[in-house]
Give the backbone structure.
Amino acid sequence: MGMSSSESATALKRTVIIAIFAAVAVVLSLVEAQIPLSGMGMVPGAKLGLANIMILTCIFFLRGRDAFLLVVLKTLLTAFILGTFSSLLFSLFGSLFSFVVMYLLMLIGGKQLSLIGISIAGGVAHNIGQLLAASMVFASLKIFYYLPMLLITGVVTGVAVGFAVRYLVTSLSKISLFEEFLDDPGDAAKG
Amino acid sequence: MKRADVWLISIVLVAALAFLVPRWFSSDESKGGIGDNLVANVTVDGKLFKTVKLTKEEQTIDIRTDRGYNILKVHDYGIEMYDADCPDKVCLGFGRITRTKQTIVCLPHRVLVEIASVSGEDEVDGYVQ
């Protein structure tokens, strides 16, 4: 009986963490949407990927399916708020592709790659996923003209996001809510 | 940062440069012919909407679909997205494009603008002679 109650407490903690992370990720996406990156000489459509901070942190602490839920929640809520339903599938594709790459790298390459490397791979994968979705929509590969520029921005934003995740993970590890998730397999990627 | 991170960064950057460097060289060659024989192919939903010559004089192209409107403007041998009522406004950020293979994309409205040379020949064939 005591066992099941501690299990349900863990499940509740997971739900709470996902909910908080989703809320923060949505706010970060909204803030990001207000920043005119293309006005600063960057490739149109390139994003800072701030919400990726929460997704990578979630992959680090929780299980793959929890992070998957977070990705879907964040994408749906952002589309609701920004009214960008016409590109919902498109951004879902990018986010899920990025999530799958980061999750697999955390499982397989967690010892070799640091959080920064995983974040870079996620940022690059997000851009490639979006281009893939867009080229499917247009049935044309012409959009891949922007691939090299998006690769470079993916690396730059990936480094920034990776550093943010490193600080966030260090700080969150001191909070009791996250204590019991520190022994997860994703732990190997620390540092 | 670990060694694998540095490798990952290098591989991605080298891949990006492998695409970019040949483009810089070829763009110098085609600069001479800028505006002379360039057209913009505007496609909506994968179907050709209009082909316009990139002239020095100003022309505007109105694209109105049930998704919304996009206004393209041709001037000084280039083309730019002037206005659109799409939610993300990403298409407005492309600025004025002037070289072959450059594109403007408005994903929410499924509008794609691509510059091509009017002869239909590839640039590579152009400077073999």
Remarks:
- The CA atoms of residues 108 and 152 of chain A lie 24 Å apart.
